[in-house]
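Changelog entry: the Tripartite tricarboxylate transporter substrate binding protein BugD record was regenerated in this release. Current contents:
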Amino acid sequence: MKKTFLKTVACLALCASAFAHAENYPSKTITMIVPFSAGGPTDTVARLVAQSMSTSLKQTVIVENVGGAGGTIGAARVAKAAPDGYTIFLHHIGMSTAPTLYRKLSYNAITDFEPIGLVTDVPMTFIARSNFPAKDFKELLAYVKANKDKVTYANAGVGSASHLCGMLFMTAIDTELTTVPYKGTGPAMNDLLGGQVDFMCDQTTNTTSQIKSGKVKAYAVTTKKRVPSLPELPTMSEAGLPGFEIAVWHGLYAPKGTPKQAIDSLATALQTALKDATVKQRFADLGTEPVAQDQATPEALRAHLKSEIAKWAPIIKKAGVYAD
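Regenerated structure tokens:
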């Protein structure tokens, strides 16, 4: 009887401590893991959101870059992190493609994370080295098909947004091209600027400044509507490839089992960040915008992730592209 009583007291004390801890959340620095290198498009989105969330949470939100293997190394780390609300994770569309692209994953994209909310949909742009001969997208298509053995397409590695866009492009035009994978967007862009590769498709958060400065040739955007920050660029449908659409959505997650109170606080802070005038302006400068408030919720992200996994699985399987 005495042992049972002591166990009950200990349990009540532990529960009270956990409740008090939850009530005081957050009480220390929060780490936001980004599964790509610093300076890339996802890192840019993360740092803008983290800075604003720090203000509303009244605790510092630091960004830590854990790159490699198309974002799966960072994702695996978060899946194994303590579910206490002090490790969160910002990832892009790759969260939905990794389950099909990678033969072996040490985590489950659906069951090992707690969704917090969608963040933004980033358009992509088709760009080429500044001296590429095609003057518009129609000529680009003709040139690529006529020179498929010579043209080089750069991407930021398997599972990256630029890899996915290129895969869709080659499927859409029924033409296999020589792809040159890099370890990140930065190196790929550097070689494009230097003329070592011919063209690529990448997020506006990474290409807008290069387009506006005239350092690259821009041909089209991959969204249904033109992008306000790049109004001169036609959509892919306008340019001659009807139905080609891809936007790089970003979502915020926590490890499975993170207390609901922490998830709710983080979701509220995210929603506040996406209403922040500075964040909205910086997003606009980069050719994107925050999602609607009703999308910056755990429920919306959970549903979106499931639908995107279902959408990409057959496309990837048909292309026959896999990573170990």
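The longest strand covers residues 113-129.
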